[in-house]
Amino acid sequence: MIKIMPGVDSAASALQAEKVRMEVIAQNIANANTTRTAEGGPYKRQVVKFETYLENQFGINSGSAVQMVRVGQVLADSRPSQELYQPGHPDANAQGMVLYPNVRVHEEMADLIASSRATEANLAIIRTARSLAQQTLSIGK
Prior knowledge:
Layout lengths: L5 H25 L15 E11 L8 E12 L5 E4 L11 E4 L4 H35 L2
Antiparallel strand pairs: 1-2, 3-4
Helix pairs in contact: 1-2
């Protein structure tokens, strides 16, 4: 199958990857104050790592490949948890210290804005490609 607009596939793969990134950011924000998880201890911030790969568009030996994006891994951030002195908290240790997640909401919001802008840019690529295809088709009329 011949693809008329291979750049659209690349932008679509980036949109899918950014969707996952936004979901992980939302999960981080939702758990910013979770001091106890099922695994024990505070919630650990998650970070999305993207990877690129080449996808052959026109056949095995065509030499035409398009760079695509996908989520490589979702990893726990290695930064330490935050400790706060709250002796009355149910999760406080013997010294009255409570471990809070290593999530910084302002950092998550900045990441969310960056992801949103990347999504907008990829949508603009798809809109432009569609417009160019429509103009190309109108030439033959």
